[in-house]
Amino acid sequence: MHRSIARLVRLDIYVPRRQFYRNKSYYLSEKWLKEPFDIGYPESSSHIKEDSKLLRQKLFPTKTLTEYDYFKQDSNREFRIEEWNQLDTDQMFKYQEMVDDAKPQYVHPKPQYVTGFELFKIELQFNRNEKKYWAMLDGNDREAYNDSEIVRHLYNERIRIWMGYEIVEYLKRNLPKYMFNPYPLLGLYPWEIIKDKLYFKRDVYDFEKDYYDTLIKETFGRNSQRKALQIYYTDILHDTETDNLYYAKVEKMFNSLPPYKKQYYVEKERKRQEHAKKTRLRSYKQKTPYLKFLIQFSKTYNPTYEELNAFDANVSDNNIRKLAISKAAGREWKNLTEEQKKQYESDGTLSSNTRLYKEMILDWKVEMVMDYIYEVGGVSGLQSSHNWRKDMHEKTSGYRYLKKMYVDKLVYLQNGNVVVSKD
Fold first, then answer.
1. What is residue 295's three-state secondary structure?
2. Where do the HMG box domain residues begin and end (predicted)?
3. CB of 312 within 8 A of CB of 273?
C-alpha cells in the first residue's frame, strides 16, 4: 500500500499525506525497537544501579524496626525506659501499626529452604503423583535431594530470582517509567526472563506486554525480516521529534545517506534474513528414526547445483547446503517402506511428550531470542564480540534453568519410568 502511495507522490499526483505505513498483520510489534537494544545487561547506567540499590533496601531490608524503635523515634525529648513500660494498649497499637505499615508487601511467597521429598516436589513441578515418582527413584537419586552445598546454592538462586520478580511487581505498580522495561533493576539474567515468559502456554505471537515480550515476538515473527529502509525508519523515529515521517520522505532520506551508512542498514537487513532462516532450522531435533536417517543421509549426499540455487541468495552457503540436504532427505524418506524405516528405530527415541523434549524446545527458543538480541540487533554498551553463550555458562555454572529456578538434574517420565538426567 505505501509503495503505491509513494509512486503517486513522485508522479505529482495528489494523495492524502500519510505517515510511514505499518501493516500490523505484517509488523507484529506496536513499536519497533531501536538498535542496539537497551536491555541493561551486562552494562547499565549509574542511575539504574543506584535505583536498584535503593529498591533492594526498601523491599528487602536487612533490619526491620520494632515498636520499641518507633517509640524512640517518636520521642521529642530525652527518652526514658519508664515511659515505654507505661504505654497502654491503645498507645502500643499505634506503634504496632507503624511496624505493619513498614513491612514489605510481597506478591509471591518467599521460597523456603527444604530438602528431601519436599525439594523433589518443587523441582518436579508436577501437581500429582509426587509420592509415586519419589518411590520410583533409587537410593542414590533420593540422596541427592538431601542437604548439601549444591542444594544450598540452588536455594540461594531461587531467592535471587524471587527477589527479582518481586521488584518487577513493585515497579509495575508504583513506578510507571519502568513499566516497559523494569528488568535492568532486577539482578535477573536475560535468558531467565526469556525462558520464564516462554513457559506460558501460549503462542509466541501472543506476546507484547513489555520489552522482552516485544523482542520474543520480533525474533520469531516476520518483523525480524525488516528491510534496510524499515530499520532506518526505526532509528530516525526515535531520534526525531517530528511526526511528518511520510514514506516518500523516509525513502528520500535513506537514498541520500552516505554509502557507508547505507551499507550499515543493508548489513542489518542481511543479518535479519539469516536469523529468520535459522529460526526455521531447529538444531535440537527430536531423536526420531527420521533424524537418525537424516544424519546418515547428510554424510553421503551432495546437493546438485540446481538444488543449491533454489534458495535465497541472502542465506549463507552453509545454511543453503543444510536446507538442500534436508529437502532431499525428506523426499528420500517418503520413498522408504515401513520395513526400511524400522531399521532406523532405536531405544534412544525420545517422545515429544516428555519433559526433556519440551525443555529442549524452550532452550532452543531462548537461544534464538538471545541470538536475535546480541547478534542481530546488538546490545548497548557491548562490543559485537561479546559471547553470550560463554557468559551464560559462567553465570549458571552448568546448571539447567527451569521455571524460576535452577536444577542440577531434570526428572521426567518416559515409557512409564522415572528418568533422572544430569546432562
1. helix
2. 286-365
3. yes
